[in-house]
Design a protein that fits this description.
Blueprint: E1 7-10, E2 21-27, H1 34-41, E3 49-53, E4 57-59, E5 62-64, E6 68-70, E7 73-74, H2 76-96, E8 99-109, H3 111-123, E9 129-133, H4 139-144, E10 154-160, H5 168-181, E11 185-190, H6 198-211
Parallel strand pairs: 2-3, 2-8, 8-9, 9-10, 10-11
Antiparallel strand pairs: 1-3, 4-5, 6-7
Helix pairs in contact: 2-3
GO molecular function: hydrolase activity
Organism: Paenibacillus whitsoniae
Family: Belongs to the AB hydrolase superfamily. AB hydrolase 2 family.
């Protein structure tokens, strides 16, 4: 596999060589990196393969997957290429590592959430589920992409009530859009800005464990 993305892979410490594992692919926000995302999902490390994908475009001290014309307005060609390359990356990684293809999850924050939701719509039930933290679905994806059914895809969407980057209205619109697409939607608001609270983290970690048929974490 020769991906265009640098990535970090964490395998369960006590791996059974005869077993396939659920996987979480993490997609970071604009200007961040794959290491920053690991802290959000580290409690899953015993049961999941965790693959953090770094954006291929340097931005300040971090990275991004595509650039913008303006806030909320991705450069279409760059966005299209990122979606195509991420799909290929997910499929290549599934062949390279002992991943259960029926338990593939994508978790993203901000720009990563935008891509996570887009991947759900383009890959359909090739993904078991997604977690989208503070993002939205670009209008051109809804109107012009070739979309697949997400009826069988589990979707966890959360948004900050005081998000100063993507106002909470966008969170409500995103939740309403997916509510029309799948009955397997969990939509939650948290009293935060453009970030992830401990309560939000606790909820999506348990959601992932439960969805993958694993024991949930006790408070």
């Amino acid at each position: 596999m020769k991906p265009i993305y640098q990535y970090d892979v964490q395998l369960p410490a006590q791996m059974d060589p005869d077993k396939k594992y659920p996987v979480v692919f993490t997609l970071h926000g604009k200007g961040s990196n794959e290491k920053n995302m690991f802290g959000l999902v580290a409690p899953l490390a015993e049961d999941f393969i965790i693959i953090g994908i770094r954006g291929n475009l340097p931005l300040g001290a971090g990275y991004q997957y595509y650039d913008l014309k303006s806030l909320g307005n991705p450069i279409r060609e760059m966005f299209d290429e990122a979606v195509k390359q991420l799909e290929a990356f997910i499929n290549d990684a599934t062949e390279k590592y002992p991943i259960d293809p029926d338990k593939r999850y994508v978790l993203g924050f901000s720009q990563g959430a935008i891509l996570s939701m887009t991947l759900a719509l383009t890959m359909g039930d090739e993904l078991k589920g997604i977690v989208a933290l503070n993002g939205y679905v670009p209008d051109f994806v809804k109107a012009e992409y070739s979309l697949r059914s997400v009826k069988e895809v589990s979707v966890f969407i959360s948004h900050g009530e005081y998000d100063s980057i993507f106002p909470v209205r966008i969170g409500h619109e995103t939740g309403a859009y997916f509510k029309e697409q799948t009955s397997r939607l969990t939509f939650k608001l948290y009293p935060t800005d453009h970030g992830v609270s401990e309560e939000n983290q606790f909820d999506f970690l348990n959601w992932l464990k439960q969805n993958a048929g694993l024991t949930i974490i006790k408070e």
